[in-house]
Amino acid sequence: MRGVIMKKGEPVDRALKRLKTKLDTEGILEEMRRRRAFETPTERKQRKLRSASKRNKIRWRYSNAPAATAETAE
């Protein structure tokens, strides 16, 4: 079961923000929104293309980052 433990003297809204962040990083909120309504095959394909694009951007950034720093070091 997922949750957060409130620290002593911590405001409730701060704990809620930590919980939302945790659920968002695990992808639970996105899955919940997706399951709330029927998704057509076209919508599913578009969603998968969007997420693949994001993944590829991150991969490209980190795979090319060391080369850029090596050039500036010389």
Automatic annotation (TrEMBL):
Region spans: Disordered: 37-74
InterPro entries: Ribosomal_bS21, Ribosomal_bS21_sf
Keywords assigned: Ribonucleoprotein, Ribosomal protein
Keyword Ribosomal protein: yes
Highest rank taxon of the organism: Bacteria
Record's GO cellular component terms: ribonucleoprotein complex; ribosome
Positions with biased composition (Basic residues): 45-60
Signal peptide coordinates: none
A Pfam short name: Ribosomal_S21
GO biological processes: translation
GO molecular function: structural constituent of ribosome
Gene3D superfamilies: Ribosomal protein S8
Family stated for the protein in its record: Belongs to the bacterial ribosomal protein bS21 family.
Protein name: Small ribosomal subunit protein bS21
Lineage: Bacteria, Pseudomonadati, Verrucomicrobiota, Verrucomicrobiia, Verrucomicrobiales
Gene (UniProt): rpsU
